[in-house]
Design brief:
Layout (H helix, E strand, L loop, with lengths): L10 E5 L4 H12 L3 E6 L11 E4 L5 H15 L4 E4 L16 H11 L1 H17 L2 E6 L13 H21 L4 E8 L5 H14 L3 H11 L11 H12 L10 E4 L8
Helix pairs in contact: 1-8, 2-4, 3-5, 6-7
The structure holds NADP nicotinamide-adenine-dinucleotide phosphate.
Length: 260
């Protein structure tokens, strides 16, 4: 029995596709014969041949407009949108360290790119009566860390509420909207953090990884998630095999979230 995902030939926009999860999604989609357009502020090295790249800052209105325009010009529309760009640059130090600019920056990167790109590209999906939108949230939205992630977690919580509302509105038009909520992912940035903690504490990388896992309450499977594992989940959700799935969130965290 074959398990064909039926994604060959579909057109995908993947934001943040030069690194981490976005990069793994781009490579998986390209390998399945999809047409892929990705975006980041700087071109990544060695994107697979045939992937369209558009340089843009999606935390701005202009950046999102530029990406939507490129999607229409280069692919004549889109079937799958994966909102991978996101992250946090907020300082540690609790609520008092978060000024207006820090709050705005977290919202600008973790909420508004999805809102703006969806607003621009959904009418095309509705007109073709098919499409899938995948918002990458974070387990932080249910497990915020007061010292360092209040604004980021709040932005991801807003993204989740927005995503749920959108899913209800567009489902009758043939468009599915789902959320993928990762825990700690072993991206390049995460590996750099492990290295830094190791150097600062004069311990090896494995011990530093344990320290970091403990700081988020532990990971029952004993390791962070690989970007490719998140990409596999996203790929399934993007496919027609997940045709009855919309408006829900899929946690991929090795068991980190401790509640039911
Ligand atoms: N890493 C984790 O442990 C973790 C855990 C839970 C959730 N997540 C979420 O998963 C998603 C992917 O995270 P990741 O860690 O894989 O990301 P990453 O490795 O930090 O890569 C981020 C990607 O987004 C791009 N990007 C960042 N800011 C951008 C901007 N303003 N405009 C356009 N592109 C931008 C980056 O390229 P440029 O820098 O060149 O722009 C890069 O391609 C994010 O939404 C993140 O919040 C991550």
């Amino acid at each position: 029995m074959s398990f064909d995902l039926g994604l060959a030939g579909k057109r995908a926009l993947v934001t943040g596709g030069t690194k981490g999860v976005g990069r793994a999604v781009v490579e998986t989609f390209q390998g399945l014969g999809m047409h892929v357009l990705t975006t980041a502020r700087r071109a990544g090295e060695g994107l697979p041949d045939g992937v369209h790249f558009v340089a843009a800052d999606v935390s701005t209105e202009e950046g999102c407009a530029h990406v939507s325009e490129a999607v229409r010009e280069r692919m004549n529309g889109v079937d799958v949108i994966v909102h991978g760009a996101g992250g946090s640059s907020a300082p540690a130090g609790g609520f008092a360290a978060l000024d207006e600019a820090e709050w705005q920056a977290e919202m600008n990167l973790n909420l508004f790119p999805a809102v703006r790109l969806d607003r621009s590209l959904l009418p095309g999906m509705i007109a073709q009566r098919s499409g899938v939108v995948i918002h990458v949230t974070s387990i932080q939205r249910v497990l915020p860390l007061p010292e360092a992630t209040t604004a980021y977690a709040s932005a991801k919580a807003a993204l989740a509420a927005y995503s749920k509302s959108l899913s209800k509105e567009v489902a009758p038009h043939g468009v599915r909207v789902v959320r993928v909520s990762p825990g700690w992912i072993a991206t390049e940035a995460a590996r750099a953090l492990v290295r830094r903690v190791a150097l600062e504490n004069a311990i090896d990388d494995a011990a530093a990884e344990k320290v970091l896992m403990q700081s988020i309450g532990g990971i029952p499977i004993g390791r962070p998630t690989q970007p490719e594992e998140v990409a596999d989940l996203i790929t399934f959700l993007a496919s027609g095999r997940a045709g009855a799935i919309t408006g829900t969130e899929f946690v991929i965290d090795g068991g980190t979230v401790p509640t039911v």
